[in-house]
Amino acid sequence: MTPVHQAVPPLQLAVNILDAQSLLAAFGTVGIAVVMFAETGLLIGFFLPGDSLLFTAGLLCAGGTAAAPGHLSLPWVLLAAVVGALAGAQTGYLLGRRAGPAVLARTKSRKITEGAARASDILEKYGHAKAIVLARFLPIVRTVLNPVAGALAVPARTFTLWQVLGGLVWTVGLVLAGYGLGASVPNVDRYLLPIIAVIVIVSLIPVAVELLRSRRAHNTDGGEA
């Protein structure tokens, strides 16, 4: 008899670094710390899904039981998120302070260049304390503001104080928001994709508003000229 060969599904080895679920499934709690560090400390991490990752991790902490697949431990998630975000921001600041404007001048990414310009405007408009805290909630800006603050010689004590405060509010707030939703809505894991889509859209609203303000200001200055 001819042996029957059953089709074996291919192994899903690829990880989608833009998808929060894929990152958490592949790397778990360790991946949270790495993503937080890269997004807030390294310019190459500007595209990483920080907001949706934190919120999704909170959801997975609440869904199911501790033995369920994909379940995460809330204390460990909070620790990984806080350590990664705070260490990343401080690293970005030190890189900017030591290398100066050359850190940003070498990049060929238009998004990073525009983000650096917005970060400088935010620092000038709102002052150091408010700008450092607000930047945590603005994608791309939270990546480039830290080296920009270092390059502009923002006092280290001022930067450290406010980046720690902003980092705690951002990471703990989003994780607990996801955990609260997951604990209050039965089988919330069925709605992960639409929930993540909403989080991504909401996180981009401040960027869109800031772009509109910049364009209006530019058009106003051009008209006056």
Notes on the structure:
The chain has helices at residues 20-41, 50-62, 74-99, 102-105, 110-126, 128-135, 141-151, 156-184, 192-224. It is mostly helical. Helix 1 (20-41) packs parallel to helix 7 (141-151) and helix 2 (50-62) packs antiparallel against helix 9 (192-224). 72% of the residues lie in helices and 0% in strands. The relative contact order is 0.14. Mean pLDDT is 77; it is low at 1-13 and 65-69. The N and C termini lie far apart (88 Å).
Summarize this structure briefly:
By secondary structure, this protein is mostly helical.
Topology readout:
Blueprint lengths: L19 H22 L8 H13 L11 H26 L2 H4 L4 H17 L1 H8 L5 H11 L4 H29 L7 H33 L1
Oligomer state equals single chain
| Biggest β-sheet description | none
Estimated radius of gyration: 20 Å
* Binned strand content: under 5%
Low-confidence stretches: 1-13, 65-69
Distance linking N and C termini? 88 Å
If you average the pLDDT, what whole number results? Answer: 77
Order of helices and strands: HHHHHHHHH
Shape: globular
Q: Supply the number of helical segments.
A: 9
Q: Would you report the number of β strands?
A: 0
- Share of helical residues: over 70%
Quickly give the structural class.
mainly alpha
Keywords:
225 residues; mainly alpha; 72% helix; 0% strand; globular; disordered N terminus
